[in-house]
Amino acid sequence: MIESATYDIAVSFAEEQRTLVDEVVEACRQRGLTVLEGNDLPQAQVRFFVPFVSTVDDLMLDGDEHVLPVLTGDTHAPAPFLRADEGLVDALVSRVEAAETAGRNRVSVADVAAAVKAPRPEKSALRSLAEQLAASSRRDLAGTMHLGDTTIAVRVERSDDTVYALEVRGETVNFVVLGGSTEPLSTLYQRIEEMLTA
């Protein structure tokens, strides 16, 4: 019987993330981790599968403890996502050391990669808009957002400025522009874009 190669982590990434991932891989190796790049060895055994994604929507997880997704975009990283920042390598080393101490088994790359479902379909322009609005709290805007499987609801406001409410349910778009304006939706998009870039 041929023994499988073993690694601490296996990374997966899109080509546009290569520079970032190369830096992380090199830093992990300098810290003593063994790293598998790519899926050329599906029978290799790993402690963690580390997919790099731009948004939370790029990945659907089944809660597998061997998956440590890394978020490279500007949005908040909810658990179990890790941020691609200066603390990432420390977090990966810590997780590997904790797994070793706990005696957790490695799993095959093929098995753990199967726990990560295919990305959701391409995001619509309105879903992207909803994410931009959610991130806009850093730009002196206040708001709430709900992203469901079939519904997106956003409410945005700024002190002394107009309040926008936008709901997308299936193919139906409902919006409210308070403050006396009844301009069409295209003008609403333009106004929101102006607010986000201000």
Explain briefly what this protein structure is.
The protein contains five helices and twelve strands. It has 198 residues and is α/β, with parallel strands linked by helices.
Helix-strand blueprint:
Blueprint: E1 6-12, H1 18-30, E2 35-37, E3 45-53, E4 60-61, E5 70-71, E6 82-83, H2 88-102, E7 107-108, H3 109-114, E8 116-117, H4 125-135, E9 142-147, E10 151-157, E11 164-169, E12 172-177, H5 185-197
Parallel strand pairs: 1-2, 1-3, 3-5, 5-6
Antiparallel strand pairs: 3-7, 4-8, 9-10, 10-11, 11-12
Task: Based on the model shown, name its key terms.
198 residues, alpha/beta, Rossmann fold, 2 domains, four-stranded antiparallel β-sheet, 5 helices, 27% strand
